[in-house]
UniProtKB/TrEMBL annotation:
It comes from the Bacteria. The keyword Transmembrane does not apply. This is AraC-like DNA-binding protein. Keywords: DNA-binding, Transcription, Transcription regulation. It comes from Martelella radicis. InterPro entries: AraC-bd_2, AraC_XylS_family_regulators, Homeodomain-like_sf, HTH_AraC. SUPFAM superfamilies: Homeodomain-like. Residues 189-289 form the HTH araC/xylS-type domain. GO terms for molecular function: DNA-binding transcription factor activity; sequence-specific DNA binding.
C-alpha cells in the first residue's frame, strides 16, 4: 500500500500503530484485506509521475469510514459503500479505524468495459443499492475462497470480478451477455442464502424478496422457474430443514409444533400434510429414523449420519 499512497498517522498520540494486511494475486489484479488504526493517506502528482502506476483501487469498508478531501468538496465514504479511487489522480484521505477489502484493477482491463471510464475518482456507489450488496457479498466470497484457489484459476476469477464490477459501475445499463449471466447467478445465490437464513420468517413472499433485492417479480419468477417457482422453492427448503431437525441424532427431540414454527409453517396440520407429500412419510416416521442413524465416528471414519445430513441439505 505504501507503494501507492504515503501513509501517516493522523494523530500519533491516539493509538499505537498496528496493521494487518493480506493479499492475493488474481492474474492481472489483486484482492486483499487491510485492518488498521486511523490513518491519513496521500498520493501526489509527483509520486504519480515517479511510479507510473495506472490502475483503479476499489475499496469496500467493512468497518470505519473514509473522509476524502476531493476537488469538489469533502465527502464521507461509509462502511459498505463501494469506493473507487483512480491512482492516476492525486489522493488525500483519512480513514477512521478500519477494516477494508481492496481490489486493484489495471486501467486497461476495466476501462473498455465501462460506458464512462473517466471521472471515477472518489466515486461512491451506495451500500444499499441491490448491485452493491451483491458485489460486496461476491468480493467477500472470493476472498474467503482465495487461499484454496489454484494459480491458474486466478485469471478466470479476476475476469468474472471485472465483469461484475463493470455492471455495478455502469448501473446495470447495456450489460453484455456475460455480465447479465453473472448477475443472474449472483442474484440467485444471494436470494437462496437469504431464504435459508430466514426460513422461520413470514416475509419470504415474492413481493418481499423482489423488493429486498431490487428485481422485478417477473425476473424473480424466471430465476426460480426450474424449481417450480419461488413459493415451491421456499417450501422445499423449509421441509429439508425440518427433515434435518427431525432426523439429527445430535439435536434435542422437538415436537411437530416447534419444528413447524421454526421453519415457517403456520400450523402443525399444514406442516404434516406438506411433509407427507414431499417425503412420503409423516414427521413421526422421520423422527423414528434418528434412532437408526449412527453418530459420527470420533476417529474421523465415514458414517451414515454424514451421508444423511448431506442428502437432507440438497
Amino acid at each position: 500500500m505504501s507503494q501507492l499512497y504515503v501513509p501517516a498517522l493522523d494523530d500519533p498520540s491516539r493509538d499505537p500503530f498496528r496493521v494487518e494486511v493480506d493479499s492475493f494475486l488474481l492474474g492481472a489484479g489483486t484482492l486483499g484485506r487491510c485492518v488498521s488504526v486511523q490513518q491519513a493517506f496521500s498520493r501526489s502528482r509527483a509520486q504519480i509521475g515517479l511510479d507510473g502506476i495506472d490502475n483503479y483501487m476499489i475499496q469496500i469498508f467493512r468497518k470505519g469510514r473514509c473522509h476524502a478531501r476531493a476537488p469538489g468538496g469533502d465527502t464521507i465514504l461509509d462502511a459498505g459503500d463501494i469506493c473507487i479511487f483512480d491512482n492516476a489522480e492525486p489522493l488525500d484521505t483519512v480513514n477512521e479505524d478500519f477494516d477494508l477489502m481492496a481490489l486493484a484493477v489495471p486501467r486497461d482491463r476495466l476501462a473498455p468495459l465501462l460506458h464512462d471510464p473517466e471521472g471515477l475518482h472518489y466515486r461512491c456507489i451506495g451500500r444499499n443499492t441491490p448491485l452493491a450488496r451483491l458485489f460486496r457479498s461476491h468480493i467477500l466470497d472470493v476472498y474467503r475462497m482465495a487461499p484454496r484457489m489454484r494459480v491458474e484459476e486466478g485469471p478466470e476469477v479476476f475476469s468474472a470480478l471485472l465483469q461484475f464490477l463493470a455492471a455495478v459501475i455502469n448501473s446495470g445499463r447495456d450489460q453484455t451477455c456475460e455480465q447479465k449471466a453473472l448477475l443472474r447467478q449472483s442474484v440467485l445465490q444471494e436470494v437462496r442464502r437469504h431464504i435459508d437464513t430466514n426460513l422461520e420468517s413470514d416475509s419470504l413472499t415474492v413481493e418481499d424478496i423482489a423488493s429486498r433485492f431490487g428485481i422485478s417479480r417477473t425476473g424473480l419468477y424466471r430465476h426460480f422457474e426450474p424449481y417450480g417457482g419461488v413459493a415451491a422453492f421456499v417450501r422445499q427448503r423449509r421441509l429439508a430443514a425440518a427433515y434435518q431437525k427431525l432426523t439429527d441424532p445430535r439435536s434435542e427431540p422437538l415436537n411437530n409444533n416447534v419444528i413447524a414454527a421454526s421453519v415457517g409453517f403456520q400450523s402443525e396440520s399444514a406442516f404434516i400434510r406438506a411433509f407427507r407429500r414431499r417425503y412420503g412419510m409423516t414427521p413421526g416416521d422421520a423422527r423414528r429414523q434418528r434412532h437408526a442413524i449412527a453418530l459420527p465416528d470420533p476417529s474421523g471414519a465415514s458414517s451414515r449420519y454424514t451421508w444423511s445430513e448431506w442428502f437432507a441439505g440438497l
